[in-house]
Structure formats: structure tokens, C-alpha cells
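Write out the 3D structure for:
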Amino acid sequence: MIELLNFDGGWEIRFNGFTAIRHTKDKPFLRAGIGTERIEMYRGNFEIEDLGPEPMEPTTIAATRTVDAVQITVVAKFGEHGFICADFRETDGRLECRFEKKQTRFNRVRLSLPAQADEKIWGCGEQFSHFNLRGRNWPLWTREQGVGRNKETEITRLADRDDRAGGDYHTTFYPQTTFVSSRRYFFHAFTWAYADWDFSASDEHRLTFWEIPERLVWSFQPTLLDAVRDVSALLGRQKELPDWVHDGVILGIQDGTETCLSKLARAVSHGVAVNGIWAQDWVGQRKTSFGKRLNWNWVWNRELYPGLDRTIRELAARGVRFLGYINPYVLEGKSLFQEAEKLGFLALDGKGETYLVDFGEFDAGLVDFTNPEAAGWYRSVIKREMIDFGLSGWMADFGEYLPTDVVLRDGTDAKIAHNEWPGLWARVNAQAIEESGKSDIVFFMRAGNAESLRWCPMMWAGDQNVDWSEDDGLPSVITSALSLAMSGMGLQHSDIGGYTTLYSLRRTKELFLRWAEFAACTPMMRTHEGNRPVDNWQFDSDDETLDGLARSTALFRALKDYRKHAVAENAESGIPVMRPLVLHYEDPAYADVKDEYLLGRDLLVAPVVREGETERTLLVPDGVWTHVWTGKKFEKGPATVSAPIGEIPLFWREGSSWTELFSTLAERIAYSANSIVTDSGLTE
């Protein structure tokens, strides 16, 4: 039920008893203006500055209810600058606001939503540094996540100094104009424009947009879990994963057919459960100062991978899939670039010539997905060169790089299309698979937006540092998964061991093994060599590491049926696989917990995220929880458990219908502590 309540000095709009909008003279619901900005991109990193002026307050603003009481219309007048009309009504059990845009040139809108001092806010897509978003502003713009992502750290300062690539607490591949409140509602804005959402005030949320949004949606629910479920009910839900994904780890291997086969053989000989090889360099390699890069021409490189067509079939017969790599760009001068340019399928610059994007020591053209024929051509490339060739999946990279001065076929301003691009890229991949008639293919992306819930079957957390840092290392991928969960995205995984290897960063054996045991308690396991493989500890760097990975894959396989059940829940009901504690336990004590989570409903996971630690202190939620490795029972409150490498702190909930599985997990996983840990600790 929608209500308009007037009071001395203002009015408010309520929906089913909840206050959605409150307007007073001191805090107008809406401000608007015409602003200018400066946007500069350098290799996916953006400098963005609003040059002003600030959005202005309305000269008058009035709310009226229709006679039949089904709609409330708000008209905000801004003197000679025009007016904005907003219509509020109930749609599908939610409160919806649609804007009339025809009478104004406004490109700045600022909304004020009522807040409470003790309110918690989560979501906004994938955030790596903070889970609860209160106390800060959040620019929502898809970009490189940045190196280090903390301006106070030396690694970020060096990355900024040398390549403008340091990042900050808010930089992310996957922003989403959705937040969930501890008041048990979600808010979503349908817009692709740059946005900056400020949750720092105690009594209001200030939401700024660089256009008038198409519409706004509020959904007030009985519980937080219901609110999160309704996000994906509105925006779309991921499908269930192919069965083979649950059968082991996808090994990231490079350097050709022979290398892939020999590394696979060694892993299998140590008992590692392998379900796939991910060879991102199936298209060939390029060496740059950053490290090992790829030849961006999406066809099989016969020189580096001789006989790969036959090898893929042979591996498939053994239950091992082969995966590759693609992105929306084509390398200048190569065959796909030449074909796309001749057909007019590449985006243009202001002079009408092919727009070339600098990716660091090479340039590439961008396939223009606003042109239906170009999108169709790229789907045909994926089907012909990848699916028909035999690939069972791929990394669909680089959805966040759309330059803001590119000229697109459909006339969309690139500053608006920029945030939309990851969804368009996801749709191209998903529709290519659908057109192929195959159902056992999975692709994964780092760039995302609200459309990703509908089109992307699996997210990946991006290019974390090969370290333990809170903002950009192992701990950050837990935070990112939980923020995505609160945004309606239920399937995510990460590069085991991280990716970015710069300056003094080197992946250690300990980091790899800790990351692997964490990955065993996520929807998918996949390793990555990193941008400088020779500097990093790899899955096959020694026998102990292979034995440790074998143990982690044994845990992953043992949880297959339980995990498939959780994945099915995500597909059917919108309940994420990796869940923040607060989703099931609405206690303020859990509102900021970002280093532990629930896998499905009945497993509590508390990964070790600090170097050198062999025990873990965690917060146990309500109920009775049994430690998988010792059988000891714990109840609500802080607890400390021993956590040697290979025994990730893992607990099952008393009363679970999966008790038989959980109570025998330790017995199912053959393990000898001495095979990984020596008396002096982990050996290098």
C-alpha cells in the first residue's frame, strides 16, 4: 500500500508502512542541475572529477496522490531551468518511481533517502575493502580494481607513481547501483551513468547520478534474506553450473600442449582431482614489461599448441575439460581485427576512424556491441573458434575498459555506455553458448553490472595481489564475494594464489596453500600462474604443494552434492552460495563480519587470512556448530581453533539434513600433516 503523509514542513511517501521518501525544506528529496566533468582513462584506470556546479535545490516541490490512490506524483520545479516529474506506484509488490525527462536538460540528480544512525548498508556490487558501506561514499564506475587499493600502502604508492594504477578502497570491476539496508529493504536504480552514493551521514543517504535515472525501485521485506532474494527476482538469476565444474580444480597452465600435459600428469600422480585445464595463451603469447600477455586474436595458435584439437578430445575422454580466454578487443593488424574493420564492426573515434585502445605496449580495436550485426559477428567468432573447436569454457575478460570518448553505432554517449558494457559483453558470451545448443559450457568474468545476474554464469574476483593484504590480497576476495551476495550475485570464485606480481610481491607456498583450501569452500576452484609466473610459487613447485592441493580438491569433491544443492538454491530462489552471516542471523554483531561466511545454510567457513598463523579466532553464530576436524562443538560467541595448513576452520550446523556427510568429512579426506608442515613450519 502506497501512502502520502503530509506534516508541518514537509511530506513523506510510505510503502506498506515503511518510509521510503521523506521531504523537508532543509532536506529536499531531490536536487538537480547541469554539470560538467573531467574523465581521463589510462589503461583501464580512470581519473574522474565533477567540475560542478553542485545540484540545486528545487524552488518548489509538491507531492499529490491520484484520486484512486494508486499513484503519487512529485513535481520539482527549478525556476527557469525546468522541472522533474516523478511518479510513484506499486509494481509487482515493490515501490517504483519513474521519471519524466522530456522537460529538462538536467544531467545531475541527487536523491536524499531517509537513514537511521545505527543502519547498516551492504552491496553496491563487488567491493573489496569494506563489507558494511556506512561512513563512506562509493563512486560507482567500472574500472581496473587497481594495485593495492589503499592509498596508505607502499605498493599502491608505487603503482600510482609508475603507472597511475594504484586504485583505492572503492575501485572495482563490478559496481552495481543496488544497496541493501539493515532496515530489510533493497534499493535499485536503473541507470548506467556514473553515480556516487554517500552513506556517511547519520540521517540520510545522498545518492548522486550523472543523469536522471530511468526508474528507482524499493523492496521492503520481512527479512534481510528475503530482500536479497528479491534483488535477483528483479534483475535475473544465474543458472546452475555444469556438473563437471564440481569435480575438481581447473589448473591454470600456459606454454603449450606438451607443458599442459606434463603438468597435468604430475598433478594427477599426486592425487589432485583435476576437472579442467585453463590455458589462457591458447591464442599465443606476447611478452611485455608487465609480464606475460596474450596474442589478442581469438583463434587457435598452432605453433604454441600443436595438435590441440586432438588433445582436447583425448582429455575430454578422461574427464578433463579445456578452457581458453577471450575479451571484447581484437589486436591491431591481426586477422580478426582486419575482418571486423572491413565490416565496420569496430567502434570509432571522433574523426570516424577505428578507435585504438592502448593496452600497454600494444593497441587493439573494440567490437561495437551497440551494433547488432557486430555483436552477432562476435558471437559467430566465439561459436566457430572456441565452442566448435572444443573449449568447455573461457575467461571473458576486460569488460570495464570502454573509453568515454569512443563513438558508438547506436549513438549512445560512451559516458553512459561505459557502465553498461560489462552486461553487453556478458550477453554476447551467453547468447553464443545458447545459439550453440551446448549446456555444459561455463565462462567467467571480472567486470559486471546489474545485467550480470542474468547473463554471467560465474564471476571471478579479478587481479588480486599475490599477498595477504586486506584491500587487495586473499582477505579481499572473501569481502568481494559477500558484497556480491548482498547485491544478488550468488556465484563467484578467485584466482588461487592471486595474480598481480609487481615490485617486491612474490606468491609464497603458504599463500598458495591457504588460498587453495579457501577455494575448496567456494563454488569453483581454479589456479592462475600470475602475470610473472617465474616469480610465483606454483601448484607444482614441489611435491608438498601438490599434496596440499590434492587435499583441497578432495574436500571440494566431498562437498559436491551439498554445493550443488546450494547452487540450485541460488538458481531457483536467489539465495547466494557464499552467504554473509547476517543473512541468516540478523544480529548487529554480524553486520561487519567479512572474513568468515556460510557456504550454503549449514557450513561455517573461517579461512586463515594472515601469514604465519596456525590458529583462527572467529565469531560463531547462533546454534551449535561442530568443528569438522576435531568434532568439538561450539556455541554462539568468539572461538579459537587450531588451523594447520590443510585444515581450514570449518563447522557444520547441528540439525542439518547433511549431518551424515559433514560428520564423515575428516575421514573422507586422506591427509598426513607431516606431508605439508614440518616441525619448523611450512617449508619453502
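The longest strand covers residues 615-627.
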